Amino acid sequence: MDFKIGVLAGDGIGPEIVEQAIKVMDAVASKYGHTFNYTEALVGAIAIDKTGNPYPDETHQVCLDSDAVLFGAIGDPKYDNNPAAKVRPEQGLLGMRKKLGLYANIRPVATFPSLIDKSPLRKDIVQDVDLVVIRELTGGIYFGARGRSEDQTEAFDTCYYTTEEVERILELAYVYAGKRNKKVTVVDKANVLASSRLWREVAQRIEKTHTDIETDYMLVDNAAMQLIQWPKKFDVMVTENMFGDILSDEASVITGSMGLLPSASIGRETSVFEPIHGSYPQAAGKDIANPLATVLSAAMLLESLDLLEEAQAVKDVVNKSIEEGYVTVDIAGEATSYKTSEVGDWLAKNI
Amino acid sequence: MDFKIGVLAGDGIGPEIVEQAIKVMDAVASKYGHTFNYTEALVGAIAIDKTGNPYPDETHQVCLDSDAVLFGAIGDPKYDNNPAAKVRPEQGLLGMRKKLGLYANIRPVATFPSLIDKSPLRKDIVQDVDLVVIRELTGGIYFGARGRSEDQTEAFDTCYYTTEEVERILELAYVYAGKRNKKVTVVDKANVLASSRLWREVAQRIEKTHTDIETDYMLVDNAAMQLIQWPKKFDVMVTENMFGDILSDEASVITGSMGLLPSASIGRETSVFEPIHGSYPQAAGKDIANPLATVLSAAMLLESLDLLEEAQAVKDVVNKSIEEGYVTVDIAGEATSYKTSEVGDWLAKNI
Ligand SMILES: CC(C)[C@H](C(=O)O)[C@@H](O)C(=O)O
Ligand SMILES: CC(C)[C@H](C(=O)O)[C@@H](O)C(=O)O
């Protein structure tokens, strides 16, 4: 089959890790008889530098025209710690989410047995962790009205949700739970927030239509604790945008395999697949960055195209590279390590 | 000296743990020649049951008339998971914070060497952790305008901050850092929120007036990760109300000594001291609850009255009880354990 893939490599290590994922996808294509037609487009700091816009219209068009989008990473130190800067790479990201309607961010977090010693948590706690955080991505306080008083001494942001937004993401959570361990944990702050009470009411209604799935409710402060104390007890955690930003990042460090975690942002027309780590500017161009999270994001991309066997082949080869120690220095530690490009070549060859 | 102490024991294990703290304070009083005049008042579910109001006016008056307030815990299962209930214990808590102007919640988190194995984190990560989370407590999304559309399908909450609110809490953070390890980490989401940009601007200004203290800025999602990965690197973390709710709870589990953590909520006129754990209804009345967090909250209370030597004596006797294993079952594990009341008696005797 033929597929159109948008490629938004972005900043820092973005281009070099995306390059490896494409090698792997090409290997998949030739093995399984598909064609991936890639179209590159600008995003992030590099897009600001070249066009003045972190998410240019042409890039948006490329995404719309694609069956799926592979995304690297964005962010550049020159825009950091400068909240007052007029144009910032993050605005590109938020604009992309909104314009493409990427309403759900999916982050699977599972322990890699051979990397368990890298976890900051005790082995018995992190063993067999296998959860997914589903974060609402186009609503809440990220996109509500905000502003400053005229004299600049007051500021406000608005967290706003509609019933449909909540229904849509909860239904998605039940789809994932149905394919996994049949448990949904709805995280909110219903003892304080009106928007959370809306979430909870909608969830209590939708729960009744999914009697095969266990539904739990948890306050966000409690969830922040339980993720560390008993991460194993979660299957699918679903929550609103800001809580999801915090909890999905918290969840991402518990297994110690940050450099391995992929994500999918699901949209109505197309979806975007990207590693959860950042653009790691210090490592850019050095051929040392770990490409595995991007390669696993490509696996999620293949799943979204219903290429399930192909996706499994990619996951298998990544596992193999970890087991055989054919990995970059961040994972290898004192052992022999390989360059970003070498890992990509190895994966492609072993597909 | 004579002091007036408000005593709000609350629900669940509240009364029995507060009783032990009072034994210890009485021992301090007789040893150091002070008088503590206690006035009890209702709060929480028990206050709803008896008066229909979780924070009755008489209770507020008791607090206003006190030099400091000792607080137990609130919450009752019959009000849980019922976001629609008209009156809830939490409203009492939020009302108290607002009416007493308790603008800062202070939560020290330090590792107890002998309890390090209880931490969910690896020993090398949690060893020597010593940090304080300072949470703004009377502003932000907790107290901004909120509501529902007439047809109930939309809901919103408002996060609102003024320059003065931000200044006040940041100045307090620098006071704490000055007495500690001279480092303040300001946590916000300045890459998205207008209120966070106000926080950051104010902080960047105030930072310049405290050149003896190192100031760091961290986005909340990053802070949620770093707390687990490198908790040692924090000294004083300061943040707005909602982020503080999440991060202070997250911080509270990293040392594995949840049952030992005290807190102070600082007000203009009086301050409130309470354990960070909940009302633990399953244990109520069984004389098994761990009173140490409440006793350590009493130590913070003594500090607020400038009884520094007395406060240190309380902290010392708590450490002694832990080292000698004179503790409740949650800490003792398989070893011999003692009843709540026995621990209180022992502490009072050994002051
Ligand atoms: C860069 C920032 C705006 C973004 C967010 O907060 O959503 C990032 O933290 C993320 O999680 O993708
Ligand atoms: C009970 C609830 C309203 C409260 C809060 O969110 O502030 C609690 O979680 C706390 O941290 O004291």
Automatic annotation (TrEMBL), chains A, B:
Protein species of origin: Reichenbachiella ulvae
All residue ranges annotated as the Isopropylmalate dehydrogenase-like domain in the record: 4-347
- The name on file for this protein is 3-isopropylmalate dehydrogenase
Source taxonomy: Bacteria, Pseudomonadati, Bacteroidota, Cytophagia, Cytophagales
Q: Which residues bind substrate?
A: 97, 107, 135, 221
Task: Name the encoding gene, please.
Answer: leuB
Q: Which SMART domains does the record cross-reference, listed alphabetically? A: Iso_dh
What the protein does? Catalyzes the oxidation of 3-carboxy-2-hydroxy-4-methylpentanoate (3-isopropylmalate) to 3-carboxy-4-methyl-2-oxopentanoate. The product decarboxylates to 4-methyl-2 oxopentanoate.
Q: Which SUPFAM superfamilies match?
A: Isocitrate/Isopropylmalate dehydrogenase-like
Needed cofactors: Mn(2+); Mg(2+)
Cleavable signal peptide: none
**Subunit and interaction comment:** Homodimer.
Q: In which pathway does it act?
A: Amino-acid biosynthesis; L-leucine biosynthesis; L-leucine from 3-methyl-2-oxobutanoate: step 3/4
Which residues does the UniProt site feature Important for catalysis point to? 142, 189
Under catalytic activity, the entry for this protein gives: (2R,3S)-3-isopropylmalate + NAD(+) = 4-methyl-2-oxopentanoate + CO2 + NADH
Q: Which HAMAP family match?
A: LeuB_type1
Per the record's keyword annotation, is Repressor included, yes or no? no
Q: Which residues bind Mg(2+) per the record?
A: 221, 245, 249
Record-stated family:
Belongs to the isocitrate and isopropylmalate dehydrogenases family. LeuB type 1 subfamily.
Annotated GO molecular function terms are: 3-isopropylmalate dehydrogenase activity
**Family annotation (Pfam families):** Iso_dh (PF00180)
- NCBIfam families registered for this protein in UniProt: leuB
Indicate where this protein resides in the cell. Answer: Cytoplasm
What does the record's cofactor remark say about binding?
Answer: Binds 1 Mg(2+) or Mn(2+) ion per subunit.
